[in-house]
Design goal:
Rossmann fold, 6-stranded parallel β-sheet, 8-stranded mixed β-sheet, 2 domains, alpha/beta, about 375 residues, 14 helices, 16 strands
Length: about 375
């Protein structure tokens, strides 16, 4: 199968969407499929055998890490030469519009997927008045696709409620070989806590951006005697967060990858995740695979992953003390914490990238077959 993948973000950027896409591309290529990735220019021309067609762009004013790459005629020429069996547009926004346009122009089967809950993000950037307009734009784009994939049941419901049709679930996946509990080390714990390995260690991993609501971890840390906080990642909100956490035992670690990231998860006492805008939260699955107990907001796609009191703790995001109470409960009982660790790992082991990609291929074949029968009728 020949697959043209249009995405607004790809390597070398690091985030949950890129994590899913790179594993998906690797799995597809391993099965003998050929993937051509259209993405903002990032210096890479190939990944795991898949060709990358980089499109030049400019940084998004509110989010400089993201590039806006505008569609151009050359994309159509490259796509036509590749002659794909199917086009998959990830988060159709700017570059993705080219995927929508040329799929229709060349009468190619079209799948779209929804990973970033942009309408919710607007509130965090003072643009809430544009939410209705954005939903209309999303509906116009997604409803051109034969199938719209979401990464959680909550997002399926949200899209359906806003008039987006032909919605289905693309199951979660996690690399359980990389993220494992036994990778916990005293050295990593000392690094994350800045030399206080015996202190309670709270961890956050992900983008440092306004919509992640990382500032809400501060009262949690302050409510736990001697607690330390490690923030792993980077993003446009880092400077504001450095000011917000000034004077507290917070370590801005920067990016970690691979075995180092796995060791960070495994070495922490609790992974605190206050975001209310997650379509899925792959980072939660990585924490769980590493045996790090999760304290997360009961919102978006998170309840699809975390079962309260079984493999982590959920809290009401509208309750100012919810995250505090959940984290205190987690740290108060070492035996319960160990049970949560084991259950979290067991849950993560259910979700391999192999299974998630096989499900995606089944969707692809169904869409290709349906269009073929429609054309023959």
């Amino acid at each position: 199968m020949r697959i043209a993948l249009f995405t607004e973000t790809f390597l070398p950027k690091v985030d949950g969407i890129v994590t899913r896409l790179r594993h998906t591309v690797e799995q597809l290529q391993r099965r003998g499929d050929q993937v051509l990735v259209f993405a903002p220019e990032g210096g890479l021309s190939e990944y795991k055998g898949a060709k990358i067609y980089g499109v030049s762009g400019f940084p998004l004013p509110l989010y400089p890490e993201l590039k806006l790459s505008l569609p151009r005629p050359a994309i159509g020429d490259v796509l036509k030469e590749f002659n794909p069996d199917i086009v998959h547009v990830v988060n159709p926004a700017v570059l993705g519009l080219a995927g929508l346009f040329y799929a229709k122009l060349y009468n190619l089967p079209l799948v779209a997927s929804y990973h970033t809950h942009l309408p919710e993000y607007l509130q965090h950037y003072g643009l809430g008045m544009l939410e209705g307009l954005l939903w209309e734009l999303l509906k116009a784009g997604h409803n051109q696709a034969a199938l719209n994939l979401c990464t959680s049941t909550a997002m399926m419901q949200a899209l359906t409620e806003h008039g987006i049709e032909r919605v289905d679930l693309w199951q979660r996946g996690v690399d359980t070989e990389t993220f494992q509990p036994h990778l916990a080390t005293l050295e990593m714990r000392s690094h994350l806590s800045q030399g206080y390995p015996d202190a309670p260690l709270l961890l956050y991993v992900g983008r440092l951006s306004a919509e992640k609501e990382i500032d809400r971890i501060k009262p949690v840390m302050q409510a736990i005697p001697n607690a330390r906080l490690a923030l792993v990642g980077d993003g446009p909100h880092r400077q504001a967060l450095e000011q917000h956490f000034a004077g507290t035992p917070t370590h801005f670690v920067g990016y970690l990858q691979g075995r180092e990231l796995a060791a960070a998860f495994a070495s922490a006492d609790a992974f605190v995740f206050p975001s209310r805008t997650e379509t899925l939260g792959l980072v939660l699955l990585e924490a769980m695979a590493a045996g790090c107990p999760v304290v997360a907001a009961r919102s978006g796609g998170i309840p699809d992953i975390v079962e309260d009191g079984v493999n982590g703790f959920l809290f009401d995001p509208t309750d100012e003390r919810g995250a505090i109470a959940a984290t205190q409960r987690l740290l108060a009982d070492p035996s319960e914490r160990e049970t949560l660790r084991r259950n979290a790992r067991r849950e993560a082991e259910r979700w391999s990238w192999t299974a998630a990609t096989q499900q995606l291929r089944t969707y692809y074949y169904a869409v290709i077959s349906a269009q073929s029968m429609s054309s023959a009728a």
